[in-house]
Amino acid sequence: MKKKGNNQQPIYPPHDWEIVEEKFCPAYNQRNETVFTLGNGYLGLRGNFEEGYHGPDGTSVEGTYINGFYETVDIKYPEIAYGYPEKGQTMLNVTNGKVIKLYLEDEEFHMFSGQLLAYQRRLDLRNGVLHRSLVWRSPAGREVKLEITRLVSFTNKHLAAIAYEVTPLNFDGKIRLYSALDGDVQNQQAGTDPRVGSHLAGRALEVLAQNVNDKGGALLQQTKKSGFYLACAMRNQVEGPLAQVKTEKTPLRVGVAYEFAGEAGRTIWLYKYLAYVTAKDEAHDLLQQAENLVRQAEEAGFTRLRLDQQEYMAAFWAQADIEVKGDPLVQQGLRFNAFHLLQAVGKDGITNIGAKGLTGEGYEGHYFWDTEIYILPFFTNCNPAIGRALLTYRYHTLDRARRRALEIGLTRGALYPWRTIGGDECSTFFPAGTAQYHINADIAYAIKKYVELTGDRDFLFTYGAEILFETARLWMEIGAFNPRKENRFCINVVTGPDEYTALVDNNCYTNLMAREHLKYAVQTAKWMEAEAPAQYQNLCAKIGLDAEEIMLWQKAAEHMYIPYDQRLGIYAQDDTFLDKPVWDLEATPPEKFPLLLHYHPLLIYRAQVCKQADVVLALFLLSTQFTTEEKRRNYDYYERITTHDSSLSPAIFSIVASEIGYHDKAYDYFTATVRLDLDDYHGNTKDGLHMACMAGSWLAVVYGFAGMRVADGVLCFAPYLPEQWEEYRFNVTHQGRIIRVVVNKEGTSYHLLKGDPLVILDHQEKRVLTTKCE
């Protein structure tokens, strides 16, 4: 593996529960804006300064984002073909409510004026707040101390709040604080790199109504094409020697200025409460809702909001935390990653989690199959309700998946999009997008694993079964029993997870996962028929499903063609992959990675080279279907031709390396995930965090080092202790139970913290867990 910066000094010093910036540097500002983002799964505020940014172009992206709130964009193709998506969806940069400007007499405070005498910014992971403290000397010599605390509420998704404290140090005089809502915002342009931003030009939000008074103001806006509504309200609470108040209203902004008679040593406070409320159909009472929310927040007060935040975070960390002794950088990285996953994930069953979360505009805020394969296991373990909500999102977009199947010429079934927000396919490059049919199987796999870990048959029968059945139909539409391959069931012209190999016949990963999908759909039908016959009959009537079709699924699963090379003793990535010349990665200049930005796709497609784990991903997901020796042979072959140009890749290679005894490699790949964003290994943290990679670091510990699996309903572990660590511990949930796993130099212990006794396997040996320590 070509390491990408893993050996560099850490950018942020190691703290167990904090990310600390000790010095302001414009060159790294955009990266830090990403790292210091706050969010709650609905609302995300990039770590921009309240006073605005006055530095060099290209070193800041002002951003406020709402999960699931998007503008539609007409897609223009130089050459179009049947079934291409006609409209894209772009997560919008919305009204900036962070604005607080400070004036000492007539001198405006900002980071590029005067002199910073002290500076620190801290992201408090334990309590879910962002602090900035500084001492500033103005050009005229006035000195002021600022303490600024920001939170985005987990207990009320619509709310954010800022506590802004000003203490003049060496002067008496006029101090003015200006608080505003700025609707003059637009999205970042993608340029030549599709991973960075969007092709949405200009403002997408129009102002429909405005309110402003001495306490605050509000804006009601609507998108130009999608027709969505947004109401944003602010309410300001001030404490200090207030002299006068002035309001401002322009076509795109409302603001309030508070003037104080400042005295040296006497602190002035501004508490700013923000509410964002959206609607897709109508704006009835939306503005009033937002104004009521900020009024209620003011009544509760900033201290109450902060205490609520602390309580929520304490409950989260009690289950989600992985404690590591022996490597403070890893400890910090794991907590940073878990925190940002919580901040990014939709929790309402209507929204999902974007590839960049709510930290930036990369990939236009789209959701991918990353959710089901990489991110869902984390939430199913740490908060099963969130896991259920993520899968419920797929149910709510099932009709659009059905429509998409018809759009590409299929006669029935459902095809989930490769990238989307609202449920429609937004990928304009079908060879590496729409052709990734495996997303249907990925969703089916995720449903199976969720039910396995939670025992939630209600979800399976009420929502999951319909998804499973409609998506299973895809395979019968695009696959066939091939007499030239001993009448095996073949699936041609598809793209697997490896986007450097497109439009191939019988991608091994796809066929293996399709087989698993079909088997689970058949099993679910049998369960429903036996346990919920009326519900099953209603579902069959709704979608026109009969026993003959289910028998065909069973036959396809039993006769699925899986490409295998007898000479090499490995699974071929597809029918022709092993016939291609091997790309010489050692001879490829470092500056030519990632390959997709420097080589034409056809050149890449003609070679044996992988962007990310493909067959190796199947080795992990379907672990019990391969012997250790099979895993080792396949791993050895595919590792040497994989670039890991996708941040999704190293975690999977780490997990499988752990399983086959390559512990040094497992740790190397793990370190490529755990601080990828904190230490900016790819040089693109400024464009947004890598959510799937963050979840991958959790997977690499729990499924890799600890070897957790579920086999035939039994929870299994095969733990080992990385030589760099003294101990690690974490909690897992299984069928309503909570089990603590502790691995150290003395061995492994298991503690049943909640639930009924159960039997687990440790390195294939049975252990019976009761409420007493094992």
Report on the architecture of this protein:
- With 774 residues, the protein is an alpha+beta fold.
- The chain has 3 domains: 170 residues, Maltose phosphorylase, domain 3; 281 residues, Beta-galactosidase, Chain A, domain 5 (Distorted Sandwich), CATH 2.70.98.40; 261 residues, Alpha/alpha barrel (Glycosyltransferase), CATH 1.50.10.
- 31% of the residues lie in helices and 26% in strands.
- The strands form 7 sheets. It has a 9-stranded antiparallel sheet. It has a 5-stranded antiparallel sheet with strand order 7-6-12-17-16, with no helix packed on it.
- The longest helix is centred in the C-terminal third of the chain and has 24 residues.
- One of its GO terms (molecular function) is carbohydrate binding.
- This is Glycoside hydrolase family 65 protein.
- Belongs to the glycosyl hydrolase 65 family.
- Keywords: Glycosyltransferase, Hydrolase, Transferase.
